[in-house]
Automatic annotation (TrEMBL):
InterPro entries: cAMP-PdiesteraseII_CS, Pdiesterase2, RibonucZ/Hydroxyglut_hydro. The keyword Membrane does not apply. Pfam families: PDEase_II. PROSITE patterns: PDEASE_II. Belongs to the cyclic nucleotide phosphodiesterase class-II family. Keywords: cAMP, Hydrolase. It comes from the Bacteria. This is 3',5'-cyclic-nucleotide phosphodiesterase. The keyword Hydrolase applies.
């Protein structure tokens, strides 16, 4: 009997650490292993499908972002550098359960062109023969360039409803007045346009609204300091109340070069340092820190070595600021 009792005690002593260890392990497995930086689901206000994310030379991956209210298939397409290759990639990534023709013709309800540089509009022009009837939105100066340089019958057939004859009337030019909220046809969204300074050109920021939530997309832009401009300052003033109220769900902005890029070679673009200086102005005007704000970094320019450097510089500068920097991938949906 005594031997038996000793055996039980020994067994208990032997099993106890295993039991405790198992409990700990068990507990650990219930802790969140990884909090995703980007979430898609019921809590999101917007769904963004990047069709192209880079700023140069890779013609299969140039600026274009489909944005819709979460749960809707009615998208606005912000810039249109790459369409077909991006849609195909997105279908491979299961972003859409549809054929690419359907995504192009039915899901994209209109294009928002920030400026007429080819890396922001080439996809629209090349895909125009296969596209459906829709609006091309932009500031007057951008649409004028599209009308007089691309849909001209000289560089391409005129698929629009203005400019050179005959007009094939597939696209309607919809001129946006700066700062005036306009409904986006066939979607549940509204848009406001703001001028940006991009070297010799006027580029555009688009503020999309769905109910009480906003996404701000900036086309190519330089910093006010370098461009001798007030355009970004005016934009930050306009969106500061939305940041303060937590209504700005994401800000999409370019960083094209690393900090080492000389001023004379910026060509109206941002570096990590210039971006952070600008966002510090936004924080100041908002009267709040930008901690946790979703900032989607667009228009990184290859080569890949430079892209890696830009990311390292951005992440370093963000350590104190604690924004949620997002590096979009072609075809991978984002939820904000
Ligand atoms: Zn560009
Ligand atoms: Zn540009």
């Amino acid at each position: 009997m005594l031997v038996h009792r000793k055996l039980i005690t020994l067994t208990c002593l032997f099993l106890l650490p295993i039991f405790v260890f198992a409990q700990r392990k068990h507990k650990k497995s219930y802790q969140p292993k990884h909090i995703p930086t980007v979430t898609a689901g019921a809590a999101s206000s917007f769904r963004i499908v990047p069709l192209g994310v880079l700023g140069g030379i890779d013609e299969s991956n140039l600026s274009a972002y489909m944005v819709a209210p979460a749960g809707s298939d009615n998208y606005a397409c912000l810039d249109a550098g790459t369409l077909h290759a991006g849609i195909e990639k997105a279908i491979k990534e299961n972003a859409f359960d549809a054929r690419s023709e359907k995504v192009l013709k039915q899901y994209i309800k209109g294009y928002f062109i920030s400026h007429a540089h080819l890396d922001h509009i080439a996809g629209l022009i090349i895909n125009s023969p296969e596209d459906s009837t829709k609006n091309i939105y932009g500031l007057a100066s951008t649409l004028e360039t599209v009308k007089t340089h691309y849909f001209t019958w000289e560089s391409w057939a005129n698929f629009a409803d203005d400019g050179g004859n005959p007009q094939l009337r597939k696209y309607h030019y919809s001129v946006l007045q700066p700062g005036v909220e306009t409904p986006v046809d066939n979607t549940e969204m509204q848009v406001q346009a703001f001028p940006l300074s991009h070297s010799n050109l006027t580029s555009t920021a688009f503020l999309l609204r769905s109910k009480d939530s906003y996404v701000l997309y900036l086309g190519d832009t330089g910093a006010d300091e370098k461009e001798k401009s007030q355009n970004l300052h005016k934009l930050w003033e306009a969106v500061a109340p939305l940041v303060a109220a937590g209504k700005l769900k994401a800000l999409m902005i370019e960083v094209s070069y690393a900090n080492e890029q000389p001023d004379k070679s910026l060509f109206g673009h941002l570096t990590p340092r210039l971006l952070m200086n600008e966002l510090d102005v936004l924080a100041q005007l908002s009267g709040t820190s930008l901690k946790g704000l979703n900032v989607v970094i667009t228009h990184l320019k290859p080569p890949y070595k430079t892209i890696t450097k830009i990311k390292t510089q951005l992440n370093y500068l963000n350590t104190k600021r604690e924004m949620n920097l997002v590096y979009p991938r072609q075809g991978k949906p984002l939820g904000f």
